[in-house]
Amino acid sequence: MYFPVGWPKLLSLPSEEEDVLQFVVANRDKTLFAVLTSQAVYVWFCKPCVHVVSYRRSDDSVIVLGKNQVAEWKPDSTALAVTTSGGHLLFYKIDHEGSGSLYAQKHHRHRQDSIEVDNHLVPAMKISIAGTLQIHGGIKSMVCFKDELMVSSGHGILMRVRWDGVVNDKMSISINTIRFSIDLQQSRQTQLDQPGVYFNQIEYCPLLGGFAVILGDGRAGFLTAPSARFEPQSVHGVWAQEVTNGSCIAANHKYRLIAYGCKNGQGIVYTVDEITGSLLVSHRLALSNTDYPDACNAAGAVTTLKWTPDGCALAMSWQNGGLALWSVFGAKLLCTLGGDYGFSQDAFRDNPLQIKAMEWGMEGYHLWITTTPKKSEKNSSDLRSLESSGDLLQLQFVKSALTVNPCRCNHEHLFLQGEDRLYINTGDTILKTNTEQIASGGSPVREMPPVLNSAGPTTQGPSLLIGNKQWQIIQLPLGYLSTNWPIKYAAVDRAGHCVAVAGKTGLAHYALFTRRWKLFGNETQEQDMVVNGGLCWWRDFIIVACYNLNESRDEIRLYPRVSNLDNAFATITKVPYQVLLVNVFRDILIVFCADYHVTMYNIERRDTKPNPTGVLTRIQDLSLANFVPHPSSLISLTLTSLRSETASSKMPSSSREAESLIVNVAGRLLMLQRDRSKPQYKEKDRKKAPQELPFLAPVVLASSVENMWAPVGYSKEKPHLMEALWLGCGAVGMKVWLPLFPTKEDKPHSFLAKRIMLPFKLQIYPLAVLFADAVVLGAANDVLTFDPMSPGLVLSCQQGLPYCVMERTTQIYLHHILRQLLRRNLGFHALDIARSCTSLPYFSHVLELMLHEVLEAEATASEPIPDALLPRVVAFIHEFPQFLQTVVHCARKTEIALWPYLFATVGNPRDLFEECIQSEAFETAASYLIILQNLENPKVSRHHATQLLDCTLDHGKWELCKDLVRFLRAIGPNDPESSPRPTAPINSPAIFPHSATTPKAESMTAFPFSPALAATQRNRSSSYTNPNFPPTSANDKQRSSSAHQQIPDRKSSVHRKDSGGSADEFFLDTILTRHARKLLSIGKLKDLGLFAAHLEFPLIGWLRKERLRVAKVEDPVESLKKLHNDFLWPLPAFPLVSVSHLPPPKYVGRLYSQSSSGSASQTGLDNNVNGVSIDDEVDSGILATSGSNHGYISSPIPSSKSRQQATTQTEDLLCDGKTEDAVLKPITPIKAMGTDEVSLSTCTTTEMTSENSSTLGENEYGLLDDSPWSSSQQLAELELLSQELVHKGPPQSEAELRYLQKIFSEATCLEWSLLLAVVLRDPVAVTSVVNTASMTECPLEMIGRMREALSFLELWADTECPGYRPFLYSLKDQAQVLTAIVNSESTVKTPSKTPPDTPTSPTPEASFTGSELSFHGSHGNRTDDENEVRTLDGNSESEISDVENEIGNDENGYQCRVS
What we know:
It is a single chain. With 1459 residues, this protein is an alpha+beta fold. The strands form 15 sheets. Strands 1, 2, 29, 30, 31, 32, 33 and 37 form an 8-stranded antiparallel β-sheet that branches.
């Protein structure tokens, strides 16, 4: 609960030769610090940390009297006693020089008075030596005892010396007269009569009534006396039995503990038994090997022990260096031995923090440290002198608010306080405020994050994220700190929205949603009150226990948050004694006073104008004098709704009020239950007026308790967790007092307890408990090291202390509770608790942690366990659906040597694998493959991997399929079949290297499925090329060879079976090919694309071979519907126009487009390019556009002469324009070209026409003036057609469809390519498919099915889907082209051979059968050579026949059988 922060401060002292730092000690109120060197005394002030005065003795005095050793302050800080090595006691007198100040800091208050005030006054002091006293035998130890000094001499005498230097010989105590025993009752007493025995260390314990001592021989004990005067004849000693080599002492008055440091590097903490008076071991302070190897022996003897001012932490240092910080009951908070507390790797060897003496500052925010001298090898004399004297360091700390103010609201949040700032972590919540509420001072609204609660108020202001893993650091205003440093008490409200602090005087509060502090407007009111009993929140009121300096009385005040901080708005209640603790339970205020009485008040809110007020009504007074030894020993108290027995089911939930009072007395937890047997506690009487709550005798619940957390609310879903009491017990960990609810079927047994205390260990220090989430929150210290570059940094950080930071830590505790219940055969209750927590996102992790911890404990046990817990844990986890996942995750995180023990209880991993397959938990089954690979031979693991691959392929788990394929390929054929092989990680890049090349940006964005296949497909040619013909250019050869490399050669695979892993590769390729065939046969093209993308399947090459087999489309209508469903592509619809009013089919879809430039010279095109007339092309009706054009374009039946040539050249010429979206416009007559411009808003294709030509074909349909689109009705219908184009599916689906259409076209699977173009409603793509069918040697069977598909689709559109009618009507001409192709194929003849050197134009037949025409739709401009129509040479026929024979043989040999 104490954590170092920031940089340590190095305080400089006037350095003198051989003047070594010896000691540091603070006065009673921690405002003045005395720093001793061998020859001088320095007095420092705490705030600001400045040197005030010093006194240096002469060299002769040092020679005669000796060097300074230790010092002790007089209680009133007017004198200082210093011991010397020569056995002398020096008395220094410290006087204040008048009313002046040495330093004064000016500050402007910014309050109503607006005056400058002096704050942080450093008084001017004068120090002088008052006298000396020689102690015979030397001074071993010294301690202040009331108004005297108790000095231990080397002769075994405890001398009482007054501050004027006079020795009280009558009250001196000889060690030989003290009787020692084990306890104060019947044990045998012995006297120390041997010579040479003396007290080496002595510490006064006023609340324990004695002195803790360590003898010269290392034995330790405690001196006590019946009277407070401590008369020599009545002194008795009690042995600390286990201490035989003690070195130092520290006493804790609040928790009544005595800590002894030993020379073996450990510490032993004792508590005093109140009955027998003996010293009982509470706990031990010992470092583990995880902190530092052999830490206790390496660190050396313990040199210093110091408790914090509030008694909640203990600082420990060792002789060889190092600092540790422990909580009051032994939880390690800090250890510099095991962290990065040095600049070098040998930080411990270089003694980074070798402490000689230390002292805590005010409120524990600073730790003053003096270090031992270090040997310097530097040449500089200044550095040598500085290092030889040691350093004076000051470490800064923050602490938990629970240490001094353990109210209930502070237990619900992670809340820390520093000297001038607050650290708060309120969880992952969002604070939403209304602007009007902020103006009126209202409270904010706490809501879930926007992701979970999207429907929120629209009038809310800005959202402030106040909860996450980061700390909210709230800096206190300088106007308050200037006079009230440091922070003494701090409290946060239950919602975590507001905080309140109290310093030296007064108080202030802050709202996180307004980011504003509220201070007292009247500074006099602030200076007249001192908060001495804590403060807490109740709703929007601040409850303060304070002392009124003006009227000299103790009060309880209630300040409303919404009003100004002023006594005029406060409710003040007088109390007779000083208030030590305050707490709130619902509407009840609990107050503990110095007279051992607990007073309870009922709090009532009254909405008075203009500000609300709170009224306190006294309910009851309860005395704890018989249970509390001293008022300061009461650590905390609270009212709860808990009972030692669970509440009756007949009892209404509204009666769950104050059932018990729980108090923590010096670490012992006492529970005082409400007496329910009294007749006045009926519900009807309780509602009339607040009644007294009589309590029964207390019951001890636990010991060594540092903090407790009791839930306020109640949850029917999680009654066990919400009605439990959580205890933080230091080194023991945590304890939970858990209720056990009996079932309706079971009869309650009198011998069974209704609650059970379960302990469990924690890796963090608990500061807050989230009851419903089964999570403990804490804080941990971390360091940030750096290498100093400048000499100044080297000097300031030469001790190696780094910059310290804090981090929030979290730990789940649910698995500890379940494990403890199972160990106690309470599995039914464990099952109830676990079932109530199944909604937690980390519930599966809880089960895994429990199984892992039990497995590690039992499998590594050196001796057989008679009652093993693992079978019960496995049976317990089997009750949940996460069983298979939990087992495999636990196994993969455990050593292989422990697997036999695990699977002997869980079952055979083969059976678990089969269960995963049956339950379709494929990811879990993949994890079992790693287990099987290490336990079985490769043949078995390959078999299971193949089985899992089949299942994942069927269910579309493509990422998992990809990993399984790589896993199968990693199982080499040369692995021994008889012994298991080592684990081959699925995602290891060493075994499965990824592609070395990086895909281009355009390839990544163009490919819609997966980046993996983009890398594979990026080198593919996008030209639609006839695969049966050999390439005739270098570029074509390169593209062809690239495509052929991607297609696996099945014949060569068969021949390579005998070498390497070809058989396994062939078997794996067969599985993938079979699944691809399955997907294509049922029309799941989206899954086929994902399949090829993730598994890098050569889709184009495979489709080329399957185009006449499984790639056939048997039912075009159903296939079209599947495409719409798979790609979430909506069917076209026209809700605003009747389909019967659509224009005739032959006029539908005519679109005229003209270049936006309007001039042929701007585009570089003439009416005659490459010998082809554009007018002729337009008259023939052939139009070609780029692939992104979405306009409706159709063409009439081309003539047999120019069908191929004109289409090819026009396509090549018109693809150079910039690709943009097309917008449908009405067609108007065009005048002479070059004189007028008709510019469309967006134009896909640039095309110039003559005055007498049209896109529709003038010879067939007449002039444009007679166009049916000239009427207003048809213009409206055309506008509807344009709007319909906008209503498309998701952009991702469109990208996928276009990519697949491109792939199928390239593979000449024109049937599916045509359907994809129809789904996209892209007439350009349809035209491209038809052109591909006409320009390449496609089978007549395929073209016939394409023609039939269009017919079936037209029929389906007429009957079921009218929205498709306009587009399908626009494809009438393409259908006629297909019909013409089918009819012409039957009459075409074999082309005659043409001499290769005759540059004549090809005949129509030769052009139809022997030309390779490439249409580049989206790959930039083409050269003139590529645009030219190429003619096969005279030897082309033989090459064609060879390729056809090869493909035929390849298809005949495709069938294979896999056994």
